[in-house]
């Protein structure tokens, strides 16, 4: 049996989103975050479909239709949610002998930090109500989609801070985790980063905020050039780890340092985790979070180097980081063969 976790840049049927609503932490930002989601849906629907989960399907469907989104490009599923971070509670799709199979990992609110009882049921509800085509296997392992990166050829990139968190799978050792990733995701090797973090990050250093696998043995990663910044030493150590990594063929990776946006803070003075690494790859394009920052244009240009031939589209994500996430965090790709 051959198991493979496709790379994000492989062909997709669509993107899964969970729409913000008044019972989420977005309640005081609903109008602003709704505009961000609308821009995101419009951009995605140029290239593929969108599956939206929301407890208020009629209202969200009307919002999208009134905004001119073609109805054939989106589907709305009426289910309750705790929050909107589908990257971490949505299904991970593997190919088993070339056939899509969806894995519903346990989601416990990033190590028991937040309520997740409703989010943890979304994948099963979508399958039970025929919004998803493949077989769905419920997995006992706690694992979030934002914590693993795949090159589609058996390499998984992750961080020890997240996968070895004592509130996720405390009964498992590093070797146990590697064996689980091999059996479930088809990992032939696991590359661990021991360093790297972002202030304000609730995920325990998800890899999709720090370093991203890209085509042609490329890694785009967060780089902090300012020695006065609190991130400087840790991200420099992470960079040294990336320099030391080797491809499956034994060659160094092509490393593309992403720009460093100016610090952003919430109303309480807490720093927010603004990162350009949290981009989303869709068919023919890459959607990149922007922050109305002088570094935005340089970030778009750097990601264009990582994905030649794809359209690079900036999405204003200033509102998303106010809840300590960004563009990749609120999306989950649905590979080819997963949507009806």
From TrEMBL:
Documented EC number(s): 3.5.3.12
GO MF annotations in UniProt: agmatine deiminase activity
UniProtKB keywords: Hydrolase
UniProt KW Lyase keyword: no
PANTHER family from the UniProt entry: AGMATINE DEIMINASE-RELATED
Protein name: Agmatine deiminase
């Amino acid at each position: 049996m051959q198991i493979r976790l496709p790379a994000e840049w492989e062909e997709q049927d669509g993107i899964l989103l969970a729409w913000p609503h008044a019972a989420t932490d977005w309640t005081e930002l609903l109008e602003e975050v709704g505009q961000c989601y609308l821009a995101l849906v419009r951009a995605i629907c140029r290239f593929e479909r969108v599956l939206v989960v929301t407890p208020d399907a009629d209202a969200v469907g009307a919002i999208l239709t009134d905004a001119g989104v073609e109805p054939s490009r989106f589907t709305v599923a009426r289910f309750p949610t705790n929050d909107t971070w589908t990257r971490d509670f949505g299904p991970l799709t593997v190919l088993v002998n070339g056939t899509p199979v969806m894995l519903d990992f346990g989601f416990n609110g990033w190590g028991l930090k937040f309520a997740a009882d409703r989010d943890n049921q979304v994948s099963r509800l979508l399958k039970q109500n025929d919004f998803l085509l493949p077989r769905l296997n419920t997995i006992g392992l706690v694992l979030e989609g934002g914590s693993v990166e795949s090159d589609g050829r058996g390499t998984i990139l992750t961080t020890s801070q997240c996968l070895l968190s004592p509130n996720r799978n405390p009964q498992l050792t590093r070797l146990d985790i590697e064996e689980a990733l091999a059996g479930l995701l088809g990992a032939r090797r696991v590359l661990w980063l021991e360093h790297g973090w972002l202030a304000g990050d609730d995920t325990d250093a998800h890899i999709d905020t720090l370093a991203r696998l890209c085509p042609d043995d490329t890694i785009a990663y967060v780089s902090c050039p300012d020695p006065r910044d609190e991130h400087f030493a840790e991200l420099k150590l992470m960079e040294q780890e990336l320099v030391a990594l080797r491809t499956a063929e034994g060659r160094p990776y092509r490393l593309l340092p992403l720009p460093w946006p100016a610090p952003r803070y919430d109303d309480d003075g807490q720093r927010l985790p603004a990162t350009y690494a949290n981009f989303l790859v869709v068919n023919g394009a890459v959607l990149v979070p922007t922050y109305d920052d002088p570094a935005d244009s340089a970030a778009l240009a750097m990601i264009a180097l990582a994905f030649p031939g794809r359209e690079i589209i900036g999405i204003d994500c200033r509102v998303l980081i106010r809840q300590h996430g960004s563009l990749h965090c609120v999306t989950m790709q649905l590979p080819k063969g997963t949507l009806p």
